[in-house]
Each structure stands twice: as structure tokens, then as C-alpha cells.
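G., the chain you wanted modeled:
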Amino acid sequence: MASFRGGAAPSHVETDEAVDATDAQDRFASLDREQALSRTIEAEIIPRLMLAHQAPRCDAPAGRAELRPTQAEVAEFASLLIAHDIDVASRFVDVMRERGLTLENVLLHLFTPVAAILDQMWRDDSCDFCDITIAFSRLQQILREISAPFEAEGEPTPGEKRALIAAAPGERHTFGIYVVEEFLRRAGWDVVCLPEASASRLVRLVRREWFDVVGFSLSCEGLLAGLGSAIDEIRRGSRNNRIGVIVGGNYFNERPESAGKVGADLVAFDGLDAVRKAQRWVGGAALSS
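Predicted structure as C-alpha cells:
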């Protein structure tokens, strides 16, 4: 067997110098990516936001200085979620907040409409399914990042209140459920969030544990009958014989009168409205939407 002593190292054995060189290349590549990200943020995103900020705005309610994103800014955020690293999209949110956008309005008027845009792009097949999936993953990660400060803003009402929230059986569009969860937690609710749970699992849960309300999200008519069956099973199996059922999502936002068809008590149009309706139900003053 030939000896390596005094000769060249075999091709499959990395020398210390080769390892050091590879590490250096990785560090330089990482630095290049960070510098490119910084240039993207500083050269493209921030100037556009600053320009929009200087222009007259017509999207703030009369008599209020509360900032809301424009449609162009929402569309810009959607494109960043699809085309860029999460750090770019996260920095976009940071800049909006530095301009005065409250966390509540981040959730209601930036995240919620951008989720609707991504949903529509998926339905229209105008964007690759994988890209939409990655964009939603980035959006959900940013939501988790602001979850703690958003919850800390709340002034919880006294008393223990529990909510179970889920998507309608078979529903694939679940981001809005996480937004509702954040609003309920901020208001002091104990929330169990099961976006893709089956009807049988939800029934077992309400039979075993007490919940004041259960909420469902629905995006399309094709799942309406299945939702009605699930609600009926939950009412019959619930430990709380006065459990409130609140429905929301794109389908009920456009057709609130359909809530009665599935046996729901109330319709919530966004996360803030979900808190109001849930509080009313617990207070014994449920009102039809």
C-alpha cells in the first residue's frame, strides 16, 4: 500500500487549508447575501415607503390620525413575501410601524388583506403554488414575531373565558384563524386553535373540555354543508349546552345571512369583531350580525 508520507494528500481527504478556504467562502457568501438584503431594503423598499408617506393620504378615517396601509403598500408587501427573503418582508413591517402603523392595524389592514391577495393569486393560478405556500409561511412567521408585543397591549376583561377556533372541515385557507387567535388572546381569552382539525376531533374536545364559544372560518360554498354538520355535532356533544358558535372568513364576510344555514349564532368580520361578538355572547347579550 502506498504511503501518503511526503506525498500529496488523496483527493477525498480535505486538508486544513481546504477546510479554512471553504469556511471563508461560506462567510463571504453569507456576507454578500446580507449586504444584498441591506441594499434591497435601503435602495428599494424604504424610499418607496417614505415617498408614500410624504404624499397626501386619503386612507385614514376622518377625524383620526390613525395610519392605515394603502392598497399599493399591501400589494407591495405581497410581492415581497413571494419574491424576497423573510427579512425583507419583516423589515417592511418594521418601517410601517416606525411610520406609525399600530400593531392592531398591521393585523387588520396589512396582514389580513395581503392574505386575501395571496389566496386570490392561488385561486387564479397567477402564482406558483409553492411560492404561495412559502409566502404564507413567511407571513405566519412574522405574525409570530409580533404576537408577544401585540398581546402585551391588551387590557383583558375579568373572568375566565375559553374559545375553540378552527377552519371548516376541509378548509385549506387558515391564516385568518391565527389572526383571530391573536385578538382573542390579547383580550384575555384562553384559546385553543386547531386550524385543520377534523369534526370528530373537535366534538371529542368539546365533550371533554368547557368552551364558551367555538369559531369557524370558511372561504367557499363547497364546504358549507360539512360545516353545518360539524356545528350540529358540536352543539349536541358540548359540555356547555349554551356554547356560542361564531363564523367568519371570506364566505361569510360576503354572505353573512348564510350563518343561519349552518346553525351559527353570530358572524365576525375580522379579529377585532370576533372579540366583540365573543364577549357579547359570554355576557348573555348575543346579537345577530
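The longest strand covers residues 162-167.

Shout if anything looks off.
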